[in-house]
Amino acid sequence: MHEYGITESLLRIIEDKAKEAGVTRVTTIRVVVGALTGFVPDCIQFYYETMSKNTVAEGATLEFEELPVRLRCRACSHVFVPAEREWYCPACQSPEIDIEGGRELYIKEMEVS
Ligand SMILES: [Zn+2]
Asked: Is the pLDDT of residue 1 over 60?
């Protein structure tokens, strides 16, 4: 489980940003999670509820935006979301592909009061 460490890092970022902005209460946090990170939003949520106690983020709602894996074909530059276990280009059938996205993990937005 790496979610514990990730939740810790996210909370640290939230606290730093809140301090920077002079904010004392965060109400909503939007987190972008790519499918390739392997992080399970429910696990982050679980740790978050305990770890956010006595911080500016206590009681804030976590909203997750999950991004799928995106691949780019080396042959024809087509970008696509692969079907499970079918990592080849649907346009030209080439198996020569690069990972274009899906490793994202960042705080997109915070709402404060
Ligand atoms: Zn292609």
From this structure: no
- Tell me the sheet residues that pair with 112: 26
Residue 89 Cα to ligand 1 middle (Å): 5
Q: How many A from CA of 66 to the centre of ligand 1?
A: 25
> Residue 6 pLDDT > 70, yes or no?
yes
Ligand 1 centroid to Cα of residue 37, in Å, is 25
34 Cα: distance to centroid of ligand 1 (angstroms):
23
Q: Which domains does the chain have, with CATH numbers?
A: 3-68+102-112 (3.30.2320.50)
Distance CA 35, CA 39 (A): 8
Give pLDDT tens digits for 95-111.
999 999 999 999 999 99
